[in-house]
């Protein structure tokens, strides 16, 4: 006998997200079974026989996908924007499986973004307990004093608590800006921007150049590549 499962369970089991998330996608009409949009999460399906798609992409159990995107500035890290602005999904045209971004980059931030359908992997990268590093190149307003840079290193007070010690290198100064490389082990909302504000400066440009040991290297802006098995293993620690 073939295993029948409810549609929300099938999506969640295939590594797409929680059942609650799956139910909202189904309700929004993003899920089809054998070419027909199904809006009831309790619809019974058999993945061995039925063809299930999310946003037109096939849902296959078990196949894990790990992608690295160089997000350009001006793209949202969400699926759809009510205002019609471009999102990272506009850059994923040829990707077969449905993937979700691992954390977020602000609209005005560019650089490395991981996308995957492996929820456990995503959890690990985002969970501050695992201390996966994120490295940014920052152009900050004004020529920062050594004391301001040291405060960034030591940790600054933000509205959601102090930041952990960070690795901060001054790359160079220009007339009225400072170029820094900052590596943090957390990933709080707008963290780098808020850190610079806490030392009376402001981010003028922000690029994420590395996640853990994965560096941006030759990936072009707006381009995407699969992680190698070795890279996935390194990120898993
Ligand atoms: N810190 C920020 O302030 N913004 C980002 O997009 C990423 C890290």
Q: Any overview of this molecule?
A:
The chain has 237 residues and is of the alpha+beta class. The chain folds into three domains: 4-58, Structural Genomics Hypothetical 15.5 Kd Protein In mrcA-pckA Intergenic Region, Chain A (Roll); 66-128 and 214-236, Pseudouridine synthase I, catalytic domain, N-terminal subdomain (Alpha-Beta Plaits), CATH 3.30.70.580; 133-211, Alpha-L RNA-binding motif (Alpha-Beta Plaits). The protein is 21% helix and 30% strand. Strands 7, 8, 9, 10, 13, 14, 15, 16 and 17 form a nine-stranded mixed beta sheet that branches. The protein has a four-stranded antiparallel beta sheet with strand order 3-2-5-6. A two-stranded antiparallel sheet has the order 1-4. Strand 15 (203-211) and strand 16 form a beta hairpin. Helix 1 (7-13) crosses helix 2. The radius of gyration is 20 Å and the shape is elongated. It starts with a strand and ends with a helix. Bound molecules: uracil. Uracil is lined by residues 105-106, 109, 190-193, 206.
Write down the overall mean pLDDT.
92
The CATH class designation of the largest domain is Alpha Beta
Number of strands: 17
Q: In which range does the helix fraction lie?
A: 10-25%
Q: Which secondary-structure class do the elements indicate?
A: alpha+beta
Strand content: 25-35%
Largest sheet data? 9 strands, mixed
Distance between the termini: 39 Å
Bound molecules: uracil
Low-pLDDT stretches are none
CATH topology name of the largest domain: Alpha-Beta Plaits
Q: C-alpha Rg, in Å?
A: 20 Å
Q: How many distinct helices?
A: 6
Domain unit count: 3
Q: How would you spell out the order of helices and strands? A: EHHEEEEEEEEHEHEEEEHEEEH
CATH superfamily of the largest domain: Pseudouridine synthase I, catalytic domain, N-terminal subdomain
Query: Architecture of the largest domain in CATH?
Result: 2-Layer Sandwich
């Amino acid at each position: 006998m073939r295993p029948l499962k409810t549609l929300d369970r099938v999506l969640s089991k295939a590594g797409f997200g929680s059942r609650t998330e799956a139910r909202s996608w189904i309700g929004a009409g993003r899920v089809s079974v054998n070419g027909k949009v199904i809006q009831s999460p309790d619809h019974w399906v058999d993945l061995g026989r039925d063809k299930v798609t999310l946003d037109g992409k096939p849902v296959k159990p078990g196949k894990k996908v790990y992608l690295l995107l160089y997000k350009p500035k001006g793209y949202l890290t969400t699926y759809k924007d009510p205002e019609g602005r471009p999102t990272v999904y506009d850059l994923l045209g040829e990707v077969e499986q449905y993937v979700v971004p691992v954390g977020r980059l602000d609209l005005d931030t560019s650089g490395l973004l991981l996308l995957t359908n492996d929820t456990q992997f995503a959890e690990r990268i985002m969970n501050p307990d695992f201390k996966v590093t994120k490295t940014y190149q920052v152009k900050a307003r004004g020529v920062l004093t050594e004391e301001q840079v040291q405060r960034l290193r030591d940790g600054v007070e933000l509205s959601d608590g102090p930041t952990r010690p960070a690795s901060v290198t001054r790359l160079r100064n220009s007339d009225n800006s400072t170029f820094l490389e900052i590596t943090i082990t957390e990933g709080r909302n707008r963290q780098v921007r808020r850190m610079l504000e806490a030392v009376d400066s402001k981010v003028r440009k922000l690029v994420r150049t590395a996640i853990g040991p994965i560096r941006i290297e030759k990936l072009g802006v707006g381009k995407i590549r699969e992680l190698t098995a070795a890279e996935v293993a390194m990120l898993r620690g």
